[in-house]
Amino acid sequence: MVLLLGVLLVLFWPRLQESPEAPEPPVSGSVSETPVVAPGTPAGQEDAVGKDPETERLLQSWLARQAAAEAEDVSSWGGATYRAAVAAAAECERLAGDRQWVGARKQCRAATARLDALLKDKPQLLTAALERGTRALEGGDAETADNAFRRVLSLDPENAVARDGLQRARQLPEVLKLTAAARRQETAGSLREARDAYTAALALDARFVPAREGLSRVEAALVEEQFQQLVSRALKALAEDRFAAAGKALARAERLKPHDATVTDLRRQLTQARLGARLQQLRREAAAHEEKEEWEAALKTCDRALQLDPAAAFANACRERTGRRVELDRQLAQTLAVPDRLFEEGPLAAARRLLDRASRITPAGPRLETQLAGLKKLIHEAEAEVEVLFTSDGKTEVVIYHVGRLGRFQRQRLVLRTGDYTVVGSRDGYRDVRRVLKVRPGSGPIHFTLRCEEPI
């Protein structure tokens, strides 16, 4: 290009030196692609010395514009339009040499107008070439894309989009080959192989839409396949009461498809199954405690079941039943722990009622039978009558609280019910005597002596 500029300057430098006028503005409008040849002009009609200043100015303007255009490498992208402009300029030179000034001026203006229009259209040419190349890439036309991006680079050698597009165009045949193979694998149901082929295509061109769409489709299908496998695994584990395994499978399925209705329903089933299994376990535990007559433990177990499900029928019935037995067991234990209380009429009557209520329970169970036997024995002992032989000095006044006055005697026989009695002796001039008589069955007649022997 530098050489060309040098040649042009050598040819036209004399004329440039002779024409000091400013360049004429470019002529707009549609211009023909072929040079216009004007009829000859008689010599001497334009300039008596053989030169035409206007023609010289037009040639100078053309040369300046051409130099600027060549600096933009117009010869590589101007095509037929630029060739027509150059041809018109050459015709201008020829006509000027023949002193045909009118025709020469017309050809120079035509050359300048074509060049100006070409330069003005350069951004549109670049944009159109980019769009053409992009469409070709999307359509899988490597040759058209290559030509289009080369055209862009001739307009703008540093255009990053075109450089990238050209690289993509060079790789497009291999990308198309891999994408086609991936589609065949996808159609055949070989999803993993299809995924690998799509991935390989995208490794060459990450923006190739068919490969991206294909990979998205295949990955979605693989997710669905894995999801269905996990759902089946969860259902099988649920049916076999393997709740931990079912929970793990559902957790993995939920990560694949969050908020999926199938997973939500299976989680509800799993929760219900776990609850049912836990309630059945507590029911068995409560029954085992009841069988062993461990009423406190049974009641606590029923309460745990009610905390899980307040509407659980077995737990409500269990709590009512075991609650009564806990209270009965407590009363029996307290009565048996303090047998001497039955020597009083009130506690004895309560013991009889307790025995009557406890005897109605069937089956009794070993613990209750033992408690009943013990209570019956205590009641029998508390109701037993024992012969007591009293001895005194005939001078002491003897009184038995809650029984009566015995008076003065030396010997007296009474039959008393089992219990503790307070016996008081009194005599004038002597200190009173107070003793407790413990009447217990099974020891034969009881001998009891009471005298006031300590003078006051």
UniProtKB/TrEMBL annotation:
Transmembrane segments: none
Region Disordered: start-end pairs: 20-52
The keyword Coiled coil appears for this protein: no
Each TPR repeat, start to end: 126-159
Keyword Metal-binding in annotation: no
Gene3D superfamilies linked to this entry: Tetratricopeptide repeat domain
Source species, domain of life: Bacteria
Keyword tags: TPR repeat
Protein name: Tetratricopeptide repeat-containing protein
